[in-house]
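S2.1 Query sequence (Regulatory protein DeoR)
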Amino acid sequence: MLLDQRRRHVLELIEEKGFISLHELATKTGVSESTLRRDLEYLDGIRQVRRTRGGAAYVGESVVSLEERSVTSLVEKQRIARSISETIGSGETVLLDGGTTTLEVARALIGKELQVVTNSLAIANLLVNSPGVELIFLGGYLHPKTGVTLGPLLNLALSQLQVPRMVFSVGGVTEKGLFNSNTLLVEAERRMIDAAERVVLAVDSRKFGKAALSPLCPLDRVHEIVTDEGIPEDWRKRIEDLGIELRIA
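Output structure tokens follow.
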């Protein structure tokens, strides 16, 4: 097994279990414990796992490429996207964060007369030739893994904007709030939330009860959550108790 393939397999096993011992990793992978220690050191260094005595714990969503993430829960994301699209009327302005779920939202918006603001290269490429869409692309440092712009230039642009609605997704939702897998992504999303009058979270049900590396904001910063029917009942009640509008796609 090639180095990258092995480390990806190790990360997937840790993510699946939450915590896994070094002995169990060696048994499942057929790799020596000394080699696995080096793999865990590397994964700890890029903040995907936390090494512990005798094993490793998963600490957040893997920062994999947009192409790899786009195949996960695609049907649910498309349903969520269509549901959100139905609430966006002609002539509106909407701010779309980067991500596979918001890319599906953008796809569902094709054909409408809209102003779309985004920092996502994938969304910009999708909509640039779409009739009726006035596209505003926010510049900055282009993050190679996620295909979104980040950094001071983006933050400056967002500080000068005020939009009626923002749609975004996250890596995890817990009682403590929303989480994402990259500190730079989190900083940009906070600025987007501040720039929006109405904040819409588009998230598939797998993300509830799951944390990621970086805290983003409390759950009550969101006005509306759109998810699929797999959301646990206790989470439905928690969201409703907070006064957040919940829509099941």
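Residues 58 and 68 are 19 Å apart (CA to CA). DSSP finds ten helices and 15 strands in the chain.
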